[in-house]
């Protein structure tokens, strides 16, 4: 079975990847190490730079990937976007809901960017899922902004879905599937 190294501090992201990888007969090896993540308005740049920093400082040998994700809310001019981690740890879900009181435009999307480091260079895989911000938090599963992100096709928030269900719709499964498809060809 092919093994891919996923560098992340976030156990939930690792679990989402691990369960999905089974469909491709791929195993995910979780590596939870410290590295400096830059601030930038573009997720692609952040993900690529993270790979380069890990490479330069020789934090991990061989091939690996990182993933950067963010929630982009239309009526807030795409906030929090690349600043999602900071936003979540400061104002959190209730803070977002407060910012959107009386706002009719609830459109939002999640974006996921994977940066994979091969010997030859870095390749990016992207996934986007559209939805809406709810009026209140719903559901106890998942992590981060899952309780306020409504997936329109299912009429449920990501926090009301099991891990397997979220993997049918999420931004992350889209970027992961692109990467796994490539590796299935390479096996
Ligand atoms: P890394 O170590 O992989 O960077 P992280 O938790 O900092 O882990 P990101 O920078 O990719 O992850 O994500 C920024 C924040 O966006 C994250 O802390 C969550 O609050 C939120 N987020 C990302 N993906 C999410 C998802 O699938 N569902 C809900 N919230 C998510």
Question: What does this 3D model show about the protein?
Answer:
The chain has a single domain (2-186), classed as Alpha-Beta Complex (Maf protein). The protein has 6 helices and 8 strands; from the N terminus they run βαβαββααββββαα. Helix 1 packs across helix 5 and helix 5 (163-169) crosses helix 6. It has a 6-stranded antiparallel beta sheet with strand order 4-3-5-6-7-8. Strands 1-2 form a two-stranded parallel ribbon. The N and C termini lie close together (9 Å). It is α+β, with helices and mostly antiparallel strands. The chain binds inosine 5'-triphosphate (ITT). Inosine 5'-triphosphate is lined by residues 8-10, 13, 67-70, 84-85, 88, 142-146, 158, 170, 172.
Strand order of the largest sheet: 4-3-5-6-7-8
Main sheet characteristics:
6 strands, antiparallel
**N-C termini distance:** 9 Å
* Helix/strand order, N-terminal first: EHEHEEHHEEEEHH
Helicity level: 25-40%
What overall geometry do the principal axes of the alpha carbons give?
Answer: globular
CATH 2nd-level architecture: Alpha-Beta Complex
- The total count of helices amounts to 6
Mean pLDDT level:
95
CATH fold-level name: Maf protein
User: Over the alpha carbons, how many angstroms does the gyration radius reach?
Assistant: 16 Å
Structural class: alpha+beta
Strand proportion, as a percent range, falls in 25-35%
Number of strands: 8
The CATH class turns out to be: Alpha Beta
List of distinct ligands in this structure: inosine 5'-triphosphate
Runs with pLDDT <50, length 5+?
none
Number of self-contained structural domains: 1
């Amino acid at each position: 079975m092919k093994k891919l190294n996923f560098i992340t501090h976030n156990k939930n992201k690792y679990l989402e990847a691990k369960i999905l990888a089974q469909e491709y007969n791929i195993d995910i090896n979780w590596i939870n190490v410290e590295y400096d993540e830059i601030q930038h308005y573009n997720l692609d740049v952040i993900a690529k730079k993270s790979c380069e920093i890990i490479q330069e400082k020789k934090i991990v040998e061989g091939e690996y990937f990182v993933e950067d994700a963010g929630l982009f809310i239309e009526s807030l001019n795409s906030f929090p976007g690349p600043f999602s981690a900071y936003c979540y740890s400061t104002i959190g879900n209730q803070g977002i809901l407060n910012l959107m009181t009386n706002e009719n435009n609830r459109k939002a999307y999640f974006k996921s960017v994977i940066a994979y480091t091969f010997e030859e260079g870095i390749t990016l895989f992207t996934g986007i899922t559209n939805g809406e911000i709810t009026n209140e938090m719903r559901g106890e599963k998942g992590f981060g902004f899952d309780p306020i992100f409504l997936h329109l096709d299912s009429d449920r928030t990501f926090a009301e879905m099991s891990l397997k269900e979220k993997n049918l719709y999420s931004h992350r499964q889209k970027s992961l599937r692109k990467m796994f498809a490539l590796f299935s060809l390479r096996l």
